[in-house]
């Protein structure tokens, strides 16, 4: 995956947002493995940062963890994607108001 890192390398939130965009946009197809080392190198962050991001995305249902194998893009339907966008819209609005 010879992709260039997105602007603003190094920030955990930016790594999370970039991975989320790629998953929801279909750039990472369902079932695709998400390799921590590759992601860490691409964004110039420690693997621990990537692990935290993947754990967060697992919690939110975008990826799944398979013991001893790593993280994979979760398979989900159109309705689930639309629901995820609706929930994100609410949380981002709340976060903006709290700032």
Cα gyration radius (Å): 14 Å
Bin the helical content.
Answer: 55-70%
Oligomerization category of the chains in this entry:
single chain
What structural category arises from helix and sheet content? mainly alpha
The neighbouring-strand order within the major sheet is 1-3-2
Morphology call: globular
Mean pLDDT: 83
Along the chain, the helix and strand elements come as: HEHHEEH
Portion of residues in beta strands equals: 5-15%
Largest sheet: 3 strands, antiparallel
What structural keywords apply?
mainly alpha, three-stranded antiparallel β-sheet, 4 helices
Describe the structure.
It is globular, with a radius of gyration of 14 Å. The protein is built from four helices and three strands. The protein is 56% helix and 10% strand. The model is unreliable at 4-10 (pLDDT under 50). 16% of the residues are buried. The protein has helices at 12-24, 36-43, 47-59, 78-98, and strands at 33-34, 63-66, 70-73. Helix 1 packs across helix 3 and helix 2 packs across helix 3 (47-59). Strands 1-3-2 form a three-stranded antiparallel sheet. The chain has 99 residues and is mostly helical.
